[in-house]
Specification:
The protein is an all-alpha fold. The chain has eleven helices and three strands. It has helices at 5-12, 39-47, 53-68, 75-83, 88-100, 104-110, 118-128, 143-151, 156-160, 165-183, 187-197, and strands at 2-3, 25-26, 35-36.
């Protein structure tokens, strides 16, 4: 994902997070100064975090940058708002603990930071979930991903039997892992496919 450090710097440097802009690699094409950050870059950053609150904050900022790219102009402002929230350290620490214990419902219910909605805090869940491949690891649920199962006729509300979003998210994750096992792919790959399709799941949808 390409991002522009110059766009982010005025929002991050006053809060002591400007160094996160060095994550990833410099882009050799396109606009000068752009950098690229991948899911693998975020995973590598996670491996060195441990329980350090500053490290968790840096990881969160990297996730927000990765999730925003160059298309979400509100990303820097919303990240700054979250970093200024007095609850930041507690929210990042407790939700990571819930995700790593497999309690995705609690993680969803506990995440509340200014400017960070489901599309981004589920990216945080996916980034901090370091459980093994046999676990139903956290997955991203943003608008693009959500359009595709809906277009296929699958409803998280119906599958969960309730309108409670933490429960619906947990059911979405377990369902995706079940589908992935049936198809012989990873749930992360299937999530990417649904994101890429963006609701265009039937022949002729591109027309």
């Amino acid at each position: 994902m390409r991002f522009r450090p110059d766009t982010w710097r005025p929002w991050l440097e006053p809060l002591g997070a400007g160094h996160v802009l060095e994550t990833g690699t410099a882009c050799t094409t396109g606009r000068r100064g752009d950098r690229g950050i991948s899911r693998d870059d975020v995973t590598a950053l996670r491996s060195g975090v441990g329980d350090d609150p500053d490290g968790l904050r840096d990881l969160f900022v990297a996730v927000m940058i990765w999730g925003s790219g160059t298309t979400n102009g509100r990303g820097p402002r919303h990240t700054s708002a979250a970093l200024s929230n007095a609850r930041l350290e507690d929210v990042l620490r407790t939700t990571r603990a819930s995700v790593r214990s497999g309690d995705l419902k609690s993680a969803y219910a506990r995440f509340a930071l200014n400017g960070v909605g489901r599309s981004f805090f589920t990216k945080w869940f996916a980034a901090v979930d370091d459980r093994g491949p046999d676990a139903d690891r956290a997955l991203i649920l943003d608008v693009r991903v959500f359009r595709s199962p809906n277009a296929l006729g699958w409803s998280s509300r119906e599958a969960a039997g309730v309108g409670h979003w933490p429960t619906r998210y947990a059911v979405y994750v377990s369902t995706m892992h079940g589908w992935a096992r049936e198809l012989g792919v990873t749930a992360e790959w299937l999530e990417w496919l649904l994101f890429d399709r963006n609701g265009r799941v039937h022949d002729g949808d591109e027309r």
